[in-house]
């Protein structure tokens, strides 16, 4: 090759790979949930498997099963996700709990009622069976908490040094009620953007373990099943336009995807975005933007303006939404772009993360 396949940007732990648009191999940045991930999906996967359901790029696929004999065909939602987090156990959770919540939450933010899970385990030779037992027990408890049943699975074993302990892939299936449609393509100018709580907790909790960062107060991952919160929200505001759980790539990636899909602009108010002081401090120390940091138990919602206050009240009445806030609005200006108005009055563009901020986070 005559030219490098990646550029490097300075980061808190050395250099950060930023994949070039013409890169001819997979780089860590392709797994970050930001611009590189979107480019990879758009370049390879959507053209290869192209259909209107996949091309919608929602967190889940909603399809109607074939009907017959006059019986209405049900609508189901399907989502699949892979989990490669390091370390396997972290404050507030572990890879098993994350694997259940991550897939369940992708279903519920689309308005579906989750029912079943399947799981595949890629085990590394030498993994302690006690650790695997802890992960399995955590998944069992998380399924019970979320009200789903794990009904199928698979296991494979790879050579020592080839699997980093365990990787887990989960697939979820749920029922999508008739008449309910939530899509990132449906945001309209004037709509309000809400977040269910403080952002960046999961990513900074993982980083604190890896890098030995200590806080005055205990910081834990926010991983949690969001089904109960979503039911309360839809009960109070059936007209919610869209919901998204801002996992890899954080709030910035989720809102940039929404702005592009709906062909609208988004304006955020920095002073309204809830961030824990310890998360903000860690981000400042490490040169990170809380908007880019992964979350595993938070959601974003797009509400018609007349319903926003009622929706906010419903969210704050639920334990997983007590720190909810209205953080911005959808605008007609600058379609496809997200901007942030700072507390001092300036404004900047909020872009999708280009490289890999923190590998192996979910």
Account of the 3D structure:
The protein is of the alpha+beta class. It has two domains: 102 residues, 2-Layer Sandwich (60s Ribosomal Protein L30, Chain: A), CATH 3.30.1330.10; 158 residues, PurM-like C-terminal domain (Phosphoribosyl-aminoimidazole Synthetase, Chain A, domain 2, Alpha-Beta Complex), CATH 3.90.650.10. The strands form four sheets. A seven-stranded mixed beta sheet has the order 11-13-10-14-12-15-16. The chain starts with 5 loop residues before the first strand and ends in a 13-residue tail after the last strand.
- Helix/strand order: EEHHEEEEHEHEEEHHEHEHEHEEE
The level of helicity is: 25-40%
Number of domains: 2
Outline type: globular
Query: Remind me, CATH topology of the largest domain?
Result: Phosphoribosyl-aminoimidazole Synthetase, Chain A, domain 2
The CATH class name of the largest domain reads Alpha Beta
Strand content: 25-35%
Strand order of the largest sheet: 11-13-10-14-12-15-16
Span from first to last CA?
33 Å
Major beta sheet, specifics?
Answer: 7 strands, mixed
Number of helices: 9
The number of distinct β-strands equals 16
In the CATH classification, which architecture of the largest domain applies? Alpha-Beta Complex
Q: Name the poorly predicted regions.
A: 1-17
Structural class: alpha+beta
Let me know the CATH homologous superfamily of the largest domain. Answer: PurM-like C-terminal domain
Radius of gyration: 20 Å
Average pLDDT confidence is 89
């Amino acid at each position: 090759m005559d030219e490098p396949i990646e550029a490097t940007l300075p980061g808190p732990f050395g250099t950060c790979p930023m994949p070039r648009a013409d890169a001819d191999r997979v780089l860590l940045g392709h797994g970050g949930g930001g611009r590189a991930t979107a480019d990879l999906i758009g370049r390879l996967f959507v053209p290869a498997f192209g259909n209107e359901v996949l091309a919608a790029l929602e967190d889940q696929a909603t399809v109607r099963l074939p009907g017959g004999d006059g019986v209405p065909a049900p609508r189901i939602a399907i989502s699949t996700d892979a989990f490669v987090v390091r370390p396997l156990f972290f404050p507030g959770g572990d890879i098993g709990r994350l694997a259940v919540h991550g897939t369940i939450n992708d279903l519920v933010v689309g308005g579906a009622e989750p029912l079943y899970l399947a799981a595949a385990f890629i085990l590394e030779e030498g993994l302690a069976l006690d650790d695997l037992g802890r992960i399995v027990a955590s998944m069992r408890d998380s399924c019970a908490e979320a009200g789903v049943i794990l009904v199928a699975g698979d296991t494979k074993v790879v050579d020592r040094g080839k699997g980093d302990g365990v990787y887990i892939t989960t697939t979820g299936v749920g029922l999508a009620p008739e008449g309910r449609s939530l899509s990132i393509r449906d945001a309209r100018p004037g709509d309000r953007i809400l977040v269910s709580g403080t952002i960046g907790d999961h990513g900074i909790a993982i980083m604190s373990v890896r890098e030995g960062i200590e806080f005055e107060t205990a910081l834990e991952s926010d991983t949690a099943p969001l089904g109960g919160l979503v039911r309360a929200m839809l009960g109070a505001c059936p007209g919610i336009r869209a919901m998204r759980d801002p996992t890899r790539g954080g709030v910035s990636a989720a809102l940039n995807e929404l702005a592009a899909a709906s062909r609208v602009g988004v304006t955020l108010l920095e002073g309204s975005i809830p961030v824990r002081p310890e998360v903000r401090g860690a981000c400042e120390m490490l040169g990170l933007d809380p908007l880019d940091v992964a979350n595993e138990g938070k959601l974003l919602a797009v509400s018609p303006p007349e319903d926003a206050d009622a929706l906010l009240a419903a969210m704050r009445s639920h334990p997983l939404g007590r720190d909810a806030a209205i953080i911005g609005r959808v605008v007609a200006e600058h379609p496809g772009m997200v901007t942030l108005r700072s507390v001092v009055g300036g404004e900047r563009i909020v872009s999708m993360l280009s490289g890999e901020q923190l590998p192996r986070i979910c």
